[in-house]
Specification:
single chain; 2 helices; 73 residues; 5 strands; globular; mainly beta
């Protein structure tokens, strides 16, 4: 992962989280891990993300979310 991607920040709730890792599980899903914990409501709030296409965000745990796109990426 490039250094610029690894320092990409996301405002999740009142705390800025940094991208720890990400992986595409298929053409419509990306799993994103953060450097700190996020609560379920903040993690699943789609307004906390800037996405080019329609997507649903699903909390997978304290530091991980899955982004499910409406169309293949």
């Amino acid at each position: 992962m490039s250094n610029s991607l690894s320092r990409m920040g996301f405002s999740l709730g009142k705390k800025l989280q940094f991208l720890s890792s990400f992986s595409a599980t298929n053409l419509k899903e990306v799993v994103v891990s953060f450097d700190g914990t996020v609560d379920k409501a903040s993690a699943e709030n789609e307004e906390n993300y800037t996405l080019a296409t329609g997507a649903e965000v699903v909390n997978l745990g304290a530091k991980t979310v899955k982004v499910v796109f409406s169309e293949p990426i």
